[in-house]
Fold this protein.
Amino acid sequence: MPPSPLPPFCAFSVTTSSPLDAMHVPRGTLMIQGTTSDAGKSTLVAGLCRLARRAGVRVAPFKPQNMALNSAVTVDGGEIGRAQALQAVAAGIAAHTDLNPVLLKPTSDRGAQLIIHGKARMNLDARAYHDYKPVAFEAVLESYARLQAAFDTIFVEGAGSPAEVNLRERDIANMGFAEAVDCPVVLVADIDRGGVFAHLTGTLACLSESEQARVRGFIINRFRGDISLLKPGLDWLEAKTGKPVLGVVPYLHGLTLDAEDMLPRDPHSTHAGDVARTLRVVVPALPHISNHTDFDALRAHPQVDFSYVRAGVVPPPADLVILPGSKNVQADLAWLRAQGWEDALRRHLRYGGRVIGICGGMQMLGQEIADPYGVEGAPGKVVAGLGWLDFSTTLTQAKTLKNVSGYLTLPDPAAVSGYEIHMGETEGPALERAALQLAADEGEGVRPDGAISADGQILASYVHGLFDTPAACGALLAWAGLDDAQAIDYSALREASLDRLADTLAQHLDLGKLFAAIG
């Protein structure tokens, strides 16, 4: 079934001024491709969307194919990559499945769940998906056509790198899409990785003649230092390729923006020294961790000492341990045990620590996890959970996708707004002590969600985004032991970061040349 029509264009007011206020942004499409993964494509598209929106342009982001475990629930009840939801915020529009028609959510090193137009279709290994790409491309072109009809300008984000020549055949994510719709391309490279000129010239060399001609210029991202020392390299690059450098974007520290997929480069975030009291929060970096954007508000909180704990690292002392979402709960639970987390959590609880389980993390806290349909592996497999909450989970073929709102059942019944994305149904006596009360699907009354242990030390919920609402974040931190928890507004921090990003792009990019490429 095709997705529902795009909702009416909805804008928000942006007060920050920009050179784009008086600049004409042509109607058309521009694609941002990267020399590597994490080169800055997602962030650049978000900033360009915000700039175009300031100029009064009806603008939309688009990513034909995304591979990510961070996702969002859309206004039409589907699922897209988290980066496209962020870009929709930047553009001032509702997140819709047409913004990311093909989403791959890895379940193992070789396989992924395939989501088309927001709905899970099947699990495929890499070879099977390669064969399926022509069908997926039809969905991509359908969505792109609808966006063309609804918006003036579209900024398209590529995936990975177009230099992956082994994936050129049937490509729908990079040059394959650009060639099919005949749109110009700008290449972005991350200078912080080193070898930026080799990345750009090497990528260009891997492209066909028609693809090379499609590249209108380069953007160098994450630069720090004296720009005059880079100038000889920029001159060489332009002389070597015959293509202009459209700008050098400085390294922006402290941006509060939803990550597309990868965990932060620095697993530790602390503001110790800025405040008298901090709460130590740790999250195991599961191999299949999903929606780790749940913890962005905690990483930004001035009273939280936050750490992701990677493989091979002994679980450190903490006040609060959070078991995150997972795309393969049974496998990640086995990883937890192999890394010594079960004993560490038992000791943590014995000394009065608090534990939160979110989505897959909630399922791990129960008695068992059954997979009768082979959602995560062999059909019929049943694994024992950690056993600290009296409920059991059965993984299901149907996926629950919904945006939700309600309140916590803690002594402070703070408002919560978030979303559910899970394939599983949980039942058991522990659910009688619900952690949240959510608005019922019919719009009247409430329905319970999750559980709180009898001793009050463990809280579990299917809801992602628990910490995004200021009141809920404060209440959960207080429950975990931070008596004087400050309230922070994550949405406001994100808006401020988008404006800062847009201002930086306006200052450091040649917007005249960049937008001339669209026309």
